[in-house]
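Long-time lurker, first post. I've been practising inverse folding by hand and with some scripts of my own, and I keep getting stuck on stretches where the structure tokens seem ambiguous. Below is the full token string for one chain I'm working on. Before anyone asks, I'm not after the true native sequence, just a reasonable design that respects the backbone. If someone could post their per-position residues I'd love to compare against what I wrote down in my notebook.
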């Protein structure tokens, strides 16, 4: 699920496990479940990027809150969709020349004068 956006994988799994505070087997499990996709060397060694680290930290937060891996996957999916929609909204606002504070609808006090 992690998008690399050109970010190079520089960390070995042992380093990532230490930085995140989890076991290497957990990280491999998250990969098998599709929660992240590290880069691979030509020899097949996993290499994790800073964005992968951020995803792993988010996974740990969600697990600490009591979610199971299926719930974590859904939250990560929804967060990614939300970020994509926010970006599209920003781009649409830039094209139309409106800012986030611009009121494009009717105000709550307008209307029939009740």
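-- Answer (accepted) --
I ran through it position by position. Result:
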């Amino acid at each position: 699920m992690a998008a690399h956006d050109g970010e190079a994988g520089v960390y070995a799994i042992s380093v990532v496990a230490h930085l995140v505070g989890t076991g290497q087997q957990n990280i491999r499990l998250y990969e098998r479940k599709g929660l992240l996709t590290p880069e691979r060397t030509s020899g097949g060694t996993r290499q994790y990027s800073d964005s992968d680290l951020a995803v792993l930290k988010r996974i740990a937060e969600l697990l600490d809150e009591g979610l199971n891996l299926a719930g974590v996957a859904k939250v990560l999916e929804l967060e990614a969709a939300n970020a994509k929609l926010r970006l599209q909204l920003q781009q649409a606002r830039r094209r139309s020349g409106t800012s986030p504070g611009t009121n494009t609808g009717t105000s709550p006090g307008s209307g029939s004068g009740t």
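A couple of notes from the structure itself: The CA atoms of residues 4 and 51 lie 7 Å apart. The mean pLDDT is 87. Happy to go over any region you disagree with.
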